[in-house]
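Below is a filled-in request sheet from our internal design queue. Each sheet records the structural input a requester submitted and the sequence that came back. We keep these sheets so that new team members can see what a complete request looks like end to end.

REQUESTER: design group, bay 2
PRIORITY: normal
MODE: inverse folding
CHAIN LENGTH: 360
BACKBONE (tokenized):
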């Protein structure tokens, strides 16, 4: 289990963006060293930036891309750090290769992961931009011998001004997914749809995807927790609440963005961010338990708050509810419904033994 790790890196007292870059880099190097991992183990660096338009090029300039990993710059103000924070994902034995299309191929055990990032090519409305990024994604998947309905395990749809642009993204995703055989009668994909700016100011919708070659259908279970949450298609969207993947040496559970919702699809505890946080964590726990896991198995979590002013009073509660071993990042990220004040996504890992090929 120690061959795979998540880290959260912060700049608690940076006086300028340049200082924040140095602090999160030093934090990552220190945590890698403490875990007995080399920088070469880093697969993914997700930067949460208070001003992504200026900070993304700054990071590229002062922090060379010497880890051979995928770097993602998310325009969401970190609420637990100054200027920027960082979530890192590492696999000790990963064999990595950057492709000409910008994607990252990661070989581990008997599997091959593909991490992709797609931006719209030109200014347009959110529906047209969503069409463009999903079509780009299809092209890259096909090039690598992967299929949307068979091999994709996780997505993040980032939407600028989500209150106005989310509907266009959803319309596009529904159309493309249905054309690929992803319907309420088959399955969807674990996903988060959240407000964020991209490094390119014209992007209204952009997409980060993770697919995996080598999985057998019987390794994958889609978790519903129907006593706590409704199917997503009930309110017109199309993603799985969580996806459990069983390997020979471990189980992964990828928990989609989860809010304060009940089994009928209704928003619970309107106007009360504290109770919404409690319910969101309860829903995450219900999903994990359906997959034979517990909250203690959470290795990474991102907490999105609609109003950053809620962070000071929510911080202690989140620390109390989430396991101490979990790498947590808290950002300002409005959710797809204005009445949802907080959303939580997570990655859980638990040991197991099965006849499938090991993860590493």
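RETURNED SEQUENCE:
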């Amino acid at each position: 289990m120690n061959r795979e790790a998540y880290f959260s890196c912060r700049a608690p007292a940076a006086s300028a963006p340049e200082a924040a870059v140095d602090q999160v880099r030093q934090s990552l190097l220190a945590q890698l060293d403490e875990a007995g991992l080399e920088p070469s183990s880093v697969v993914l660096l997700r930067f949460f930036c208070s001003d992504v338009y200026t900070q993304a090029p700054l990071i590229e300039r002062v922090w060379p891309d010497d880890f051979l990993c995928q770097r993602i710059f998310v325009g969401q103000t970190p609420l637990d750090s100054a200027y920027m924070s960082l979530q890192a994902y590492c696999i000790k034995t990963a064999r990595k290769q950057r492709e000409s299309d910008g994607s990252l191929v990661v070989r581990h055990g008997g599997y091959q992961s593909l991490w992709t990032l797609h931006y719209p090519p030109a200014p347009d409305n959110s529906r047209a931009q969503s069409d463009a990024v999903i079509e780009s994604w299809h092209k890259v998947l096909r090039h690598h011998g992967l299929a949307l309905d068979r091999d994709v395990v996780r997505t993040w749809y980032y939407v600028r001004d989500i209150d106005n642009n989310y509907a266009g993204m959803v319309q596009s995703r529904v159309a493309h997914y249905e054309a690929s055989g992803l319907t309420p009668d088959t399955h969807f994909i674990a996903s988060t749809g959240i407000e964020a700016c991209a490094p390119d100011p014209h992007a209204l919708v952009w997409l980060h995807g993770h697919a995996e070659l080598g999985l057998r259908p019987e390794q994958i279970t889609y978790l519903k927790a129907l006593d706590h949450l409704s199917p997503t298609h009930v309110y017109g969207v199309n993603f799985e609440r969580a996806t459990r993947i069983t390997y020979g040496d471990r189980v992964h559970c990828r928990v989609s963005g989860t809010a304060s919702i009940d089994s009928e699809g209704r928003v619970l505890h309107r106007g009360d961010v504290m109770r919404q946080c409690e319910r969101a964590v309860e829903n995450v726990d219900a999903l994990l338990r359906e997959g034979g896991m517990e909250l203690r198995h959470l290795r990474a979590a991102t907490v999105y708050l609609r109003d950053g002013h809620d962070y000071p009073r929510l911080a202690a509660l989140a620390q109390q509810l989430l396991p101490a071993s979990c790498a947590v990042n808290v950002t300002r990220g409005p959710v797809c419904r204005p009445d949802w004040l907080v959303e939580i996504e997570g990655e859980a890992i638990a040991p197991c033994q099965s006849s499938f090929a090991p993860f590493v």
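SHEET NOTES:
- The longest strand covers residues 342-351.
- The chain has a mean pLDDT of 97.
FILED BY: M.R.
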